[in-house]
């Protein structure tokens, strides 16, 4: 077997092992991220549940324009509360340090994103080498 083919096979095996490890880690850190989100948005969500008659369906048929605008405003306020709560808790110690480390390892040069992990929009904005590893990722 020639040297180029051996190197290629090794890189493919390395990529597959890295992707397999990343996919296993994604399953674990998915739970970590969900736990963090649930904890962070608990209060804004509970405030909605405390209003049993709350109806945020501003697209419902047969409601007046004023009712639709009122429901839309209420929905905007609730969404703003959820987004602000997420934003306020994006730094340690509220944001889980293990999740920060995992994300940093996932998005660095020479890391292999799992197959179908990035969508077309994202793929058009990153550089990947011939083995689908990130190249020249820049910090903001």
- The strand line-up of the biggest sheet is 1-2
* Estimated structural class: mainly alpha
Give the termini separation: 44 Å
Low-confidence stretches: none
- Averaging pLDDT over every residue, what do you get? 92
Q: What overall geometry do the principal axes of the alpha carbons give?
A: elongated
Question: Helices and strands, in N-to-C order?
Answer: HHHHEE
Number of strands: 2
> Sheet bearing the most strands, described?
2 strands, antiparallel
Helical residues, percent? 55-70%
- Count of structural domains: 1
Number of helices: 4
Rg, Cα atoms, Å: 22 Å
Question: What percent of residues are in strands?
Answer: under 5%
Word description of this protein:
By secondary structure, this protein is mainly α. It has one domain (3-135). Helix content is 61%, strand content 3%. The chain has four helices and two strands, in the order H-H-H-H-E-E. It has helices at 3-49, 65-88, 97-106, 120-123; strands at 127-128, 134-135. Strands 1-2 form a two-stranded antiparallel sheet. Strand 1 and strand 2 form a beta hairpin. Helix 1 (3-49) crosses helix 2 (65-88) and helix 1 packs antiparallel against helix 3. The mean pLDDT is 92.
